[in-house]
Structure formats: structure tokens, C-alpha cells
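Per your request, structure below.
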């Protein structure tokens, strides 16, 4: 009997509750006096460090850092083509890692009380071990989906069992693809609702992991 080649793509996905969060923040001051701008940013960052230390001491923050400092000066052009007085800008940025949504809400509330602080991102993710395990399971399910598709096609043609010939990331089976990494891993978004006390109640969305695999089977 003539061999029939069946090529399919298998996909799978999973949604999981995130386990850790990184809050990225910055402190920025601007003004006409360089020393004053630096002093304002330093004073505010000292207050931020106090918050972070308090959260760390009670176990809410597991890691934090302040790793970028910039101080710049410029003379912008005005609408009539002349140069405005020198403007100074001092910026300090950092991040804090937490594992509890209520503590994230509390930290965001604390940071938001300072006028010079910007909360730039609240990113949720999985711990590395849990992520590796979840990705492996999604990949296995994608392979199973490819096998079921091939079996369905073979049955529709009146053929018998199928035998796997090749598996590859999407686009790589025939050498025409770019080899884009899989699976797809979508970061969780954060729902934010103002509380009656003036703060925020934050609830992370589920993380969605997606995987795809190209597969080639033979059937007779």
C-alpha cells in the first residue's frame, strides 16, 4: 500500500494563577536649580527605601533594588527660536518583588503617596520551577493534539495507524520558517479598582501559556 504523508500542527494552552510580581517604579524631579532637583529626588527615594525596608522586614518584599540613576540638564528651544533657561532633571528607578496581591496593593498605595514617584509597571509571572513544569505540560499536550489530528485525517482517508516521522517548532519542519521561539507566554494583566479608602485593590489576571508544534506522520 502506498504511504501517505500527513503534516499537521498541534496546539495547546493553559491558564495559571501568577505567583510573583515585580513592581517597577521611578522617582523623577525637575526644576531650574540642579542642587534642589537632586535633593528632591534623593529625599523622595529615601522615603521609598523606608517603605521597601518595612515591607521586606515583614516578609512581603522578597527582593528589591535601586539600580539606575540619571541626572541631566538641557536648554530647550522656545517657540520664537530662542533658548530657554537650563532645566535639570534627576531620576532614580528600581524594582521590588512580591508574592501576594494584597501586599502589592499596599506597596502601590505607599508609593503613590509621594508626588515624585511613578509606578511604571506591575508585572506578574510564575516562579521559574512552576513555569518550566507548566511549559513542559503544554508542549506535551500540543504533541498529543498533533497526533490526534493526524489520526483523524488518516481515518477520514480510510488508512490505519499513523507513525511519527518528524516534530519541530512552527515553521521549521520544512526549513522555511524563522524558528520563532515557542511556546507563547502572555503576561498577566492587573485589574485595579479604587477602594473606598483611596487606595487600589489589585487582582492579577490568569497567565496564559500557549505552545504549538509542527508534526509529520506517515499512514498506510
Amino acid at each position: 500500500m502506498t504511504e501517505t504523508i500527513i503534516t499537521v500542527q498541534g496546539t495547546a494552552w493553559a491558564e495559571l494563577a501568577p505567583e510573583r510580581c515585580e513592581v517597577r517604579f521611578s522617582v523623577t524631579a525637575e526644576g531650574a536649580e540642579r542642587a534642589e532637583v537632586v535633593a528632591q529626588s534623593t529625599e523622595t527615594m529615601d522615603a521609598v527605601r523606608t517603605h521597601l525596608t518595612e515591607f521586606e522586614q515583614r516578609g512581603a518584599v522578597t527582593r528589591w533594588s535601586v539600580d539606575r540613576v540619571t541626572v541631566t540638564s538641557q536648554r530647550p528651544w522656545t517657540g520664537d527660536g530662542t533658548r530657554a533657561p537650563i532645566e535639570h532633571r534627576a531620576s532614580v528607578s528600581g524594582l521590588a518583588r512580591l508574592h501576594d496581591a494584597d501586599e502589592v496593593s499596599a506597596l502601590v498605595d505607599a508609593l503613590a503617596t509621594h508626588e515624585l514617584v511613578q509606578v511604571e509597571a506591575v508585572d506578574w509571572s510564575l516562579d521559574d520551577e512552576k513555569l518550566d513544569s507548566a511549559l513542559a505540560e503544554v508542549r506535551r499536550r500540543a504533541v498529543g493534539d498533533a497526533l490526534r489530528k493526524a489520526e483523524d485525517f488518516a481515518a477520514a482517508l480510510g488508512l490505519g495507524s499513523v507513525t511519527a516521522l518528524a516534530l519541530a517548532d512552527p515553521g521549521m519542519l520544512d526549513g522555511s520558517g524563522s524558528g520563532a521561539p515557542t511556546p507563547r507566554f502572555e503576561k498577566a494583566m492587573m485589574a485595579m479598582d479604587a477602594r473606598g479608602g483611596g487606595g487600589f485593590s489589585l487582582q492579577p489576571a490568569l497567565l496564559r501559556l500557549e505552545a504549538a508544534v509542527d508534526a509529520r506522520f506517515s499512514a498506510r
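Strands lie at 4-16, 20-31, 61-74, 87-98, 117-125, 162-168, 184-186, 190-194, 200-204, 207-219.

Regards,
D.
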